[in-house]
Write a structure and sequence with these properties.
The complex is a heterodimer of chains A (331) and B (314). Chain A is an all-alpha fold and 331 residues long. Chain A contains 13 helices and two strands; from the N terminus they run ααααββααααααααα. Chain A has two domains: 71 residues, no CATH class; 226 residues, MetI-like fold. Chain A is globular. Chain B has a single domain, classed as Orthogonal Bundle (MetI-like fold), CATH 1.10.3720.10. Helices cover 72% and strands 1% of the residues of chain B. Chain B is built from twelve helices and two strands. The chains are: A mainly alpha (331), B mainly alpha (314).
């Protein structure tokens, strides 16, 4: 077990290193000169040279990459003498646009993305799994057909279209909700809830539809298994066979998928956050892309990769607990 | 479309009776109302995309022609008339502010969206089949390398990385870039299935028999294994297209897709964000087209799978 975990963690480090390397190569070889970007309109050749010097852009690419890596683990210094700026340990550089520390920007926005992700996850798990279970139990009835038809339709709506439609109906026409605002839970819990409600619904819809279909298929497959026939022939009631025997094997695969979906969302729900103007990591990514703010784009890519890769490992570890049939074998 | 094309290609192969499978699936789909409706809608969209210049010629509005007479400049450019300016002149209304004809833009946008999705599907399928079969057929270190690459690509936060790449690459030919980027991140999902099926097929008796009777590797791959992957390939590609239509629209929505003034559905929806309160039709029309296209493709893929599965079970 310890060997397995160590192996997986080594894999995580390797993948994150490769993500770092790829993003670095892409941004520092293909995109426009960062020095010119920072310098802006009132620019002189001397100023560009100075910026290049401070950011170390004159050094060979390998040195720059090593500097970037060192910055993440040990912090780094930019410039020298009077211009010296120290960037302390997880150092992801400074935004070209606002000169803020990228790490601080991420830390500031992560709670918003987490709130969006957690709320949506609760919603889609509840709705998706319940609808899927009901459909499986009532397979072939009108409920099953309606629910599955809706699930197919719901998973085909692009979430930005759904976001605009919801906003138009609920905010503009019916005026039952205010336009989403950036409020802390402590300041105004009601407005906080109202502000996050639409993003939650928008984000949860696609996933709920997918999970409903998955749950239904898994439960139907499980109900056809031999051990279910045994359980029923022992005289257990349908509800009891479902609770004691069917749910666990049917829902384990869902837990795996959920882990990965949720991890991916923590890295920012780009479209949803942008449409609703929520100041999370996703919106930060979209904004920085629009302004070609490379350090921020790199940080968000790395962060998202980090969540996905770590999420994968966590899912695999949890899976062995949920499904004892899967044993970890070290080759 | 793919259903009709494939049986001819593989007709006469000894592995399976393709003629009957093809006919059975076609009959099953023809009896299914949802599948027929989806196909009809998709045919309409394809026709509209092909006939986009014709539509422009008949209505007299190009996709990039401004029509300031159709919008109310005093009210900040809101279209004249109800429902976003729908009239005999502009059948689906006009864009606010510049008065471009929405029908023409939808038709030309369909070209971009469908072309990118189709090209991405073709490239993904090619990569997925070639690499998946290589891994499954040769196994050993080839399999190891391909599997590691697939793991790596699937662990990537694809959407953010796609956006990051597209935003940093020079403007150039955005459509080609989109296809390449979507395919690079998309092929592992197909290759994984192809690899698994090839692994089991390679050890089947009929492949061994062919090998024993002196068939070349080329014959084994193209005559024995590939025809048996047909049904899963048809289903997987049909189900992949809506994903790519959505991805293209999403990337264009975020401003890293096709560059204006070339219209694409995602980009039309993106430009309607600032107008949703005063002119809801501006996002509702491209939104509906996009939704119905994705839905039709999903339904079709779903029913195709059901039809193929029913054949395997019997």
């Amino acid at each position: 077990m310890a060997r397995y975990v160590a192996g997986r963690l080594a894999g995580v480090v390797l993948i994150l290193f490769l993500v770092c390397l790829f993003t670095f190569i892409i941004f520092f070889t293909l995109s426009p000169d960062p020095a010119v970007m920072i310098c802006g309109k009132t620019c002189t050749p001397e100023r560009i040279d100075q910026i290049r010097d401070v950011l170390g852009l004159n050094q060979p690419l390998v040195t720059q990459f090593l500097g970037f890596l060192t910055g993440i683990f040990a912090g780094r210094d930019y410039g020298s003498g009077a211009n010296l700026i120290h960037c302390s340990a997880p150092c992801l550089g400074y935004s070209f646009q606002t000169n803020q520390s990228v790490w601080d920007m991420v830390v500031e926005r992560l709670p918003v993305s987490a709130t969006v992700a957690i709320g949506a996850a609760v919603l889609w798990l509840l709705v998706g799994i319940l609808a899927g279970l009901l459909s499986a139990v009532k397979e072939g009835t009108w409920w099953d057909r309606t629910a599955m038809g809706l699930a197919l339709g719901g998973s085909s709506v692009p979430n930005y279209v759904l976001a605009l439609a919801l906003q138009y109906v609920l905010v503009v026409q019916l005026q039952v909700l205010p336009f989403p605002q950036a409020v802390a839970f402590g300041d105004d819990p009601v407005l906080w809830f109202q502000s996050y409600l639409m993003p939650w619904i928008v984000l949860a819809t696609g996933y709920a539809c997918l999970y409903a279909r998955l749950t239904r298929a898994n439960v139907i497959d499980t109900l056809a298994e031999n051990f279910m026939r045994t359980a029923r022939s022992k005289g257990l009631s349908p509800a009891l066979t479902m609770r004691r025997h069917a749910l666990r094997p049917a829902l384990t695969p869902i837990a795996t998928i959920f882990g990965m979906d949720f991890a991916a969302l923590l890295g920012g729900a780009l479209i949803t956050e942008t449409v609703f103007g929520l100041n999370g990591v996703g919106k930060m990514a979209a904004d920085s892309i629009a302004k070609n703010d490379q350090p921020v784009i790199m940080a968000v890519t790395l962060l998202a990769a980090f969540f996905v890769v770590v999420g994968n490992v966590v899912v695999d570890l949890v899976y062995t607990r949920l499904d004892p049939r899967v044993r970890i074998t070290t080759p | 479309m793919t259903v009709a094309a494939h049986p001819q290609q593989v007709a006469g192969t000894p592995a399976a009776p393709p003629q009957t499978t093809g006919r059975r699936v076609r009959d099953a789909l023809l009896r299914d109302r949802a599948a027929v409706l989806s196909t009809a809608y998709l045919a309409l969209i394809v026709l509209m995309a092909i006939g986009a210049p014709l539509i422009s010629a008949i209505t007299g509005h190009g996709p990039n022609e401004f029509d300031t007479a159709a919008v109310n400049t005093d009210l900040g450019g809101v279209p004249h008339g109800a429902l976003g300016g729908i009239s005999a002149e502009h059948l689906l209304g006009v864009e606010p502010q510049n008065g471009r004809d929405i029908l023409a833009r939808i038709a030309y946008g369909a070209r971009v969206s469908l072309l990118i999705a189709a090209a991405a599907t073709a490239l993904t399928t090619l990569l997925g089949v070639v690499l998946g079969m290589l891994a499954g057929f040769y196994q050993g270190w080839v399999d190891q390398v391909i599997c590691r690459v697939m793991d790596f690509l699937m662990a990537f936060p694809a959407l953010i990385f796609m956006i990051a790449i597209l935003s940093s690459l020079p403007q150039g030919n955005r459509s080609v870039l989109l296809v390449v980027v979507i395919s690079v991140f998309g092929w592992p999902y197909l290759a994984r299935v192809v690899r698994g099926q090839t692994l089991t097929l390679v050890n089947r008796e009929f492949v061994e028999a062919a090998r024993a009777s002196g068939a070349s590797t080329e014959q084994l791959v193209f005559k024995e294994i590939l025809p048996n992957l047909r049904s899963s390939l048809i289903v997987m590609t049909t189900l992949a297209v809506p994903g790519y239509v959505g991805t293209e629209a999403g990337l264009s929505f975020l401003g890293v897709g096709v560059a204006p003034p070339t219209p694409s559905w995602g980009q039309m929806i993106s430009s309607s964000v600032g107008w949703y309160a005063v002119d809801p039709m501006y996002f509702a029309i491209p939104g509906t087209f996009l939704f119905l296209t994705v839905l039709s493709l999903t339904v079709l893929g779903d029913r195709l799978r059901a039809a193929f599965d029913a054949g395997e079970a019997s």
